[in-house]
Specification:
Elements lengths: L1 E10 L3 H12 L4 E5 L12 E2 L1 H9 L3 H7 L3 H4 L1 E5 L8 E4 L2 H4 L8 E2 L2 H14 L3 E5 L2 E8 L2 E8 L2 E12 L6 H6 L3 E2 L5 E9 L13 E5 L2 E6 L5 E8 L12 H12 L7 E10 L2 E3 L3 E2 L2 E3 L5 E2 L7 H20 L9 H29 L5 H12 L2 H5 L39 E4 L2 E4 L8 E6 L4 H12 L3 E7 L16 E3 L43 E2 L3 H4 L7 E4 L5 E5 L6 H11 L4
Parallel strand pairs: 1-2, 1-10, 2-7, 4-13, 10-19, 23-24, 24-26
Antiparallel strand pairs: 3-6, 4-5, 8-9, 9-10, 11-17, 12-15, 12-16, 13-14, 14-15, 17-20, 18-19, 21-22, 23-27, 24-25, 27-28
Length: 592
């Protein structure tokens, strides 16, 4: 039997598992991903990529590649309802791009999962820290004193894998979750479903009949655009209690279902595949058991209405990766890992609940309890969900509260109110930099980042905090646009990395993490990102007349942002203080 030692084993090679491997590798963590399938998905089980997930893809340098593989926003970010795609009662409502898009440097996008996985797999395999094994099945695992020992079987034999931590991203029927005895909580299944993927030329549909998703009443089904060329999907159901089964969906039955949905009896159609699935909503009772963590559908399953499931899972991975890296590198206490469930489970539960609300609207429409006009108004109203995907905040030991209340919009599902309150996603603000316009989000990365008012003295205090804690920080100073760069001492506006340092052995008051290469040293350069390969900022200045107000800061304020882009600590009015910053870092990393 072969043997392999890695720091983290990821089980499952769908989008969540691949993203976990990518983010762990960006932090310099050795990771092995195993996936029982021989290749990436051939079925586009998910298509919608939320704004927050697009921000992560942008940070990894693959936003443009994903957009080339997907569908034009202006044409397909829309929802439709009607008796069929060609019926006289068909109505369409497009996304409110002008309202929602300014909240981010990117926006919601449509890219079929089968294409997205290819891009994610290529990126994961390009990382020297990651090994990606498709056609590999984990056949057993057991916790040990040092982590987890797992047996992985593939064509060339068995491998004994020893790891410190295991991330289970093995889907809604997670064998890892079941083996750990973790219950899945939720209502009974909502329906037994069939996805029929087909190829057809629907170019005759006018622009006002093209939508990412159309809910139809005769027969009750949904039609999804898989690409903006020839691939489409019909989602319909069957009732086992009435004798229905997947076997009923012969090629003849599938052709009839597709033609009825389009409303063209003789439409030339090629059936590409049929996949049964269960529509359900559940949340695992726990997201962690010792050194094993659940992520994605293994931890929570949402209904497909809203397209939240994959995105929520990717953000699980993003939240967990930096915490595992900090513990593995000795800069954080083990208790930091407890904040994964504390932060992600409430978000997952809310997300699943909102997907259920969306499903109920669909049921009401398909069963005739809503008029077409009522149906399109309610469906369109639920397509805008920036409040849900951007507005959530964390409340855990990995956040230092500043005593302020969270925003309270009238519609927290639709309405996102930007805030730099600790626990929330750092707001997007456009800055003017040496290479033109750059988002505050583009200044973040796999490190802690301090955004500070220029000229307030934060770089020197942050350097001292880095010396005391041994934690790598990046300080970025931002000046009000009306302040000329020459009015501030040379280098004061420029963003500069403050690397981790080894603390002298005769200083008993501070921890002494073993110096290692920083994540930035293995991070790829991202075109448009102001950081070079080594993680150092290009020369400033960065200017904005509004960023301090939008971040709730005075002329001497600063905000510390975690590697996952969420605010860890805020000092609204300063003054610049190494002790205060040190205390915040220690608190967030569970060191004191």
């Amino acid at each position: 039997m072969n043997e392999l030692d890695v720091e983290v084993l990821v089980v499952g090679g769908g989008p969540v598992g691949l993203c976990a491997a990518i983010e762990l590798a960006r932090h310099g963590i050795s990771v092995l991903l195993v996936e029982r399938r021989a290749d990436t998905s051939i079925f586009p089980k998910a298509r919608l990529i939320t704004t927050r997930t697009m921000e992560l893809l942008r940070g990894w340098g693959i936003q443009e590649e994903v957009e080339r593989a997907g569908m034009p926003r202006e044409e397909y970010l829309a929802v439709g309802v009607g008796s069929s795609l060609t019926a006289a009662d068909f109505l369409r409502s497009a996304a409110e791009l002008d309202r929602d898009a300014p909240q981010s440097p990117t926006y919601t996008f449509l890219c079929a999962q089968d294409r997205l996985e290819v891009i994610l797999r290529r990126l994961a395999e390009s990382r020297p820290e990651a090994e990606v094994w498709f056609g590999a099945t984990m056949t057993g695992m057991r916790p040990t004193a040092g982590g987890v020992t797992a047996t992985v079987n593939r064509a060339d034999g068995e491998t004994l894998v020893r790891c410190r931590y295991l991330v289970a991203a093995d889907g809604s029927r997670s064998g890892v979750r079941e083996g750990l005895g973790i219950a899945a909580e939720g209502p009974p299944p909502l329906g037994h479903m069939i996805s029929i993927m087909f190829e057809a030329d629907l170019g005759f549909l006018s622009p006002d009949r093209r939508a990412a998703l159309s809910f139809l009443r005769d027969p009750p089904c949904a039609v999804e655009a898989v690409d903006h060329e020839r691939r489409w999907m019909v989602q319909t159901g069957y009732e086992p209690e009435l004798g229905g089964s997947p076997a009923d969906f012969t090629e003849e039955a599938c052709l009839a279902a597709v033609r009825a949905a389009v409303g063209v009896p003789g439409l030339p159609v090629t059936i590409l595949g049929v996949m049964p699935w269960l529509q359900q909503a559940m949340v695992a009772a726990a997201f962690r058991a010792g050194p094993v963590f659940l992520a994605g559908d293994a931890a929570h399953v949402a209904t497909p209405q809203g397209g939240f499931g994959m995105n929520c899972g990717i953000q699980d991975a993003h939240n967990l990766a930096w915490k595992l890296a900090a513990v593995l590198r000795g800069t954080a206490g083990e208790e930091l890992l407890d904040t994964y469930e504390a932060e992600r489970r409430p978000v997952a539960a809310r997300t699943v609940d909102e997907s259920l609300n969306n499903a109920l609207i669909t049921f009401d429409m398909m069963e005739g309890r809503l008029s077409m006009r009522e149906a399109i108004e309610r469906q369109a109203g639920r397509r805008s969900c920036e409040g849900l995907v951007l507005g959530f905040g964390y409340d855990s030991r990995a956040v230092v509260s500043d005593g302020t209340a969270p925003p309270a919009p009238a519609d927290p599902y639709r309405t996102y109110v930007p805030t730099a309150r600790p626990g929330h996603r750092a707001p997007h603000v456009w800055l003017h930099g040496p290479d033109g316009r750059v988002s505050t989000l583009d200044l973040l990365g796999p490190r802690f980042t301090l955004l500070a008012a220029a000229g307030a003295g934060w770089p020197g205090q942050a350097a001292e905090a880095a010396r005391r804690t041994g934690v790598s920080l990046t300080t970025v100073e931002i000046a009000a646009a009306e302040i000329a760069a020459g009015e501030i001492a040379a280098g004061e506006i420029a963003a500069a990395e403050i690397a981790s340092v080894e603390i002298a052995a005769d200083d008993p008051s501070t921890p002494r993490p073993t110096p290692t290469s920083t994540p930035e040293e293995s991070s790829p350069h991202v075109p448009g990102d102001p950081f070079t390969v080594a993680g150092r900022c290009r020369s400033g200045p960065f200017l904005s007349p509004t960023w301090a107000k939008e971040y709730g800061l005075g002329p001497e304020g600063a905000v510390l942002i975690r590697p996952d882009g969420h605010v860890a600590w805020r000092s609204p009015d300063g003054p610049a203080s190494a002790p205060a910053l040190t205390k915040a870092v220690d608190r967030v990393l569970s060191r004191r």
